[in-house]
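By way of example, we now present a protein record of this kind:
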Amino acid sequence: MIEQPEDIRLNESREDQQWLGPPPGWLLHWGITFVLTAVLLLVFLGFWLRYPDVVEAHAVLTTRQPPVRVVAPVTGRLQAWMTGEGALVQKNSPLGLMENSARYPDILRLDTLLDHFGPQLEKEWLPESDLPSGLSLGTLQDEYALFYQHFENLRYQLSQDATEQRIKAMQEQIAQIRALEPVLKQQSITLSQEVQVVNERQQRYQQNVPGGVISQYEFEEARQAFLRAQRELQDLKRDSINNRRTMASLEEQILALRQNRNEGVKEAWRQLRDDLKRLHGAIAEWDRQYLIRSPIDGYVALTGALSEGQSFAQGEEMLAVLPPERDSAYIVRAGLSGQGLGKVETGMQVLLRLDGYPYREYGELTGRVASLSPIPDEGPGLYRAVIRLDSLVTSHGAAIYFRQETGATARIITRPRSLLQRVFDRLTSGLS
């Protein structure tokens, strides 16, 4: 019988050792070393292993000068289609005409006529030609009728005004003198050449007189010819100066007569000029409402069915104008949301997967981020990123046929980050 508690514990310890066996001495000596080495190796691998994040965004393949969409200026029907698909057009050239009550050729005729009349009316020179009648101008009819009436009234007043008759006579005299200027100029050039020839002859005769080759009489005749030609040249120059003085004097007299003319004629001139400005403005407004013009130089591309008589609502898209080849540097416009936006910087590589071209079969296009917009401009919370493409040849060597506004997925490769940084980021975010 065991009476001491110490003997009982000793016996239990021996039984445990019998069950477990002797402790492994190598684990006790080297276990901590192995654990420490493994931890250091994991830390090194976590610091050495680096890989980037990928920020994806919806993108559109386009050109530096994107296509411009043309919309209907007013609600109505297309009256005339003035071009065809694929046609090369210039900026502001007419593409179509919306239905209205005016005749487009009459509008063009009136616009050309007013451009011709404008400078003359500013100088208070009333054109001799009559204004056309019977034009079909639609909403411009009243403005033109008022201009026509004031034009004819002024013409009648001027025909009854003696001052205007004097002004007209002086203007005709100025026109005649001005018509002589080219003739006098040509005569001056011819006489200058003649004076030079006669002078050379006189000098040559003068050298030959002492030797007896040329007589004194012949030398005197040569000298008189030179003086006569020189005098004629001076007279011609004097006539030219007098003509300029006469024209300046006549213009001053015309100005004085206009300043002293009666107030009725002055008011008629002012009224006609005001009518001209209003008519120009009315034509511009008609043009803006009914005429469809090309916003840029480029090629016409139809975005749907388009035919004469077709109805459109105001602002409804009708067609698009594609930029010419000289402006067709290929770029990609991508819309980035706030998530991952801070990781994107200019110069980062971009892999582009085009819709309609499965990337596993065709590969990806490569490019670089060229710019980032500081404020959202592609929609609510979307920031525009412009991506410059290296080429339209994919990573698999496939050449992509360019089509405007082809959809794509842009995969922006951000800066590489180590595995250790990512672990610490998760730990700190979890603690926070």
Notes: The two ends are 64 Å apart (CA to CA).
